[in-house]
Every structure is written in C-alpha cells, then in structure tokens.
Amino acid sequence: MNENLSQYADEKKSSKKWLLLAFLLLLLFGGALAAFLIKRGGHSAGGMPKITLDDSKGGHRLLIDGKPFFIRGVCYNPVPIGQNFKSDFFGKDSPALGVDGDLMKQANINTIRLYHAGTNAADVKLVINGLYKKHGIFSLLGHHLAFWEWPPANYADPKFREHLKKQVLDMVRTYKDEPGVLGWILGNENNYSFDLDVRPWTSDEIDALATPEERRLERAKIYYTFINDMAREVKKIDKRHPVIMGVGETKSLDIAAKYATDIDILGMIAYRGSSFGNLFREIKQKMDKAMMLIEFGCDRYNVITQKEEENFQAEFIKMQWRDILKNSADIGGAKNCLGGTLFEWSDEWWKGNDTDTRSWSVQDSVAHWRNVAYYYDADKEGLNNMNEEWWGIVRLDPNKKVDGHDARIPTKAYNLIKQMWGAEKK
Length: 426
Description:
The protein is of the alpha/beta class. It has helices spanning 2-39, 99-106, 121-135, 158-175, 192-195, 204-207, 212-237, 253-259, 279-286, 310-326, 412-425; strands at 51-54, 61-64, 67-68, 71-75, 111-114, 138-143, 181-186, 243-248, 265-269, 290-295, 301-302, 307-308, 337-342, 394-402, 405-410.
C-alpha cells in the first residue's frame, strides 16, 4: 500500500509539472497570438473591438481596446460621374475595397462616415469589414432621418417617427456585430428645419402657439425628444457602440441638452471658414458632452476667378484641423473634441442639379449658396461662393477608369492630410 501511495504521489507531481508547462505555453503563445491580432487590426475577444468613452482624466476621449483613438476621417459618398445620390457603391466591386481604400490608408485616414447603408446588407458588410480588416479603417454608419426626402419629414407625426425609428433599429440590428462599425449617427442637419426654417414641418398644436419663437422651441423639443427616444432604444439592443446625434451649428443646443440626454456624442456640422471660433467652448457650455465634427472643410472652386483653387482648400483645412486638435483632451482648449470627418472624400458631380441627368456628367462651376467666412471668393456682395460639386480631396477623372471606377486624382488637400495625420501617428 505504501508503494502504491508513493507511485500515486510521483504521478501527481508529474501531472502538476505538465499542467504548469501547459499553462506557461498558453500564456506565451496566447500572448503572441493576441499581439499578432492587434498588429493586424484584429481583436482577440471575439473579433470585436471594445469601444468606450472616457472622461476620467479631465477631458473627453474615445478609447478602442483601452487605447486613445482620435478620429481622422472623411465623409464617404463616392458617386460616379454621370450618377446621383441613388448610386449604390457597396459590394465586392466597391471602390472602398480598391483604389479608395488604398489611398485612404496612405493618407492615414482611420474612419469613414457613411450617410446611409445600402439596400443589400451583405454588400454593406463587405465594405465595412473589408476596409477594417485590410486597412484598419472604421465606419460610422448613419441614418439621415428622411430630412431631404419628399414629401418633407414631419417629426410632429407619431406614425412618421415610429416609421423612422423602425428603420434605425433595423439598421442597428443588422450591423451591430460587425467589427468595422465605430458608431451610429442619427440625423445630419435636421435641426435646420426649425432653426433655419429649411424644409419646415408643423402640426395643429404647433400652429396654435402665439409666436414664431414659441413654435421653433416646440419643434426643437419634439425633435430632440425623438432623437433621445431612439438613442435609448438603440442602447437596449447594442451596448457596444456610441450613439452620435448629428446637428448643424449651435442655435438649439440648449434645448438638445435638456431633451437629448441619452446620446453619447454630439456630431457637429460647422462651416465657419478657416477657424471654428468659439464653437468648442460654446458646445461645452451648452451641452457638456464629447463631440466630433461630422462635417467640416472647404470647396476648391473660386467663383470670382472661375478657376480651381487647391491652395485655398488645403490652407483652410489645415487651419480647421489645428482648431480640432487644440480642443482635444490631450492638448487643451475645451478638451471635448474626439476628431472629425472631413467633407468630403471625392467630388460629387450631381449635386448642382439632382434632377437634370445631363448635368451629372459635367462638373458644375455655378455656386449654390453663400458663406462669407470663406473669404477668398466672397468679395462680391450677394454672389454665391460655395460650390457643391468641388469639395472632394480627390478629383474624379472623366477620361480614365481604374478597376472600373473613375480615376482618382489626389489634390493638395489630400497630400496635406497625408502629411499632417502621418506626423500625428508617430
């Protein structure tokens, strides 16, 4: 019996040695595997990056897998010459998986903003995850909430709100488990419907109010309450990704702060010329949340000289980006900015006249609105100076195709962000 006990003890010691060795090997190779996955842009925990917001160190930061992630992005709507906004650029032949993705990677772009998902979910997933796996580029997926559709959106109509909410939640359910998704953007510049009376909407109850200002405030309350309701519903089915509320400028932010408390990030659209002025401080005072620019930039056509002006575009973007950096958590200022998505990646030749198909094959030189903050061609009083078809940082070549797509010609603004964002990564 003593001999058997001795043999059992020896076997137990040997077993412990093998278990210890196996554990050490697991640590060694498991760590190597995790390092390999992170280096390749992947993630060891089920392939899903951990996206969090952190304000513990005096300022707002976006973290991915615990590391700071500053959004260096572009708005992406690569409509081919001769087509309009209905163009579907998703799928295995998408330029995002070829020429655009390669150029974005070279320019150190880490995020694209998609204004909508395509009609085929499998094709959308190919693009979102293809960009992420090949280049480490995330996608912000949005829903414009029918602002530019016809008939105009009416957010006072409960049935209409439910219709939109269903679309948003269907989008979230469809794409929430895709590793390339960075977050959800609800709306764009929809607040212009009550802040600027662009495509306004109303109801009998709103019309009964005494003054225009009372009616504006009531519409703002209805809209921001609707956004907050959607944000809550999104978070019930997806706890991984932040909810971003898109707004244009700051006029009704004090109302948003009261009624849209459940959003995570404020997505600001601002075209203030070469500087954002007090934008970041104003946002902090009115709505102290993390924010990002979901649209900013400069067109590159001078309506006075009737010539393309790449230098002006590049210079304005350089100064705008300096403002963005100055208000990041790691540098100072308001410490609330997470980065931005520059408007836009490539020119869109359809925007001057979305109903005239012949004009979609000609890059229109006629300006469509006026903004004196873009002073290089705003000298003539009353002259529109903002050219909707000339905002891209890559031009489209109508005479050359690459892999079936209009050839891309990088502008000076492209080379600028390639240099700036490359230096920031080091």
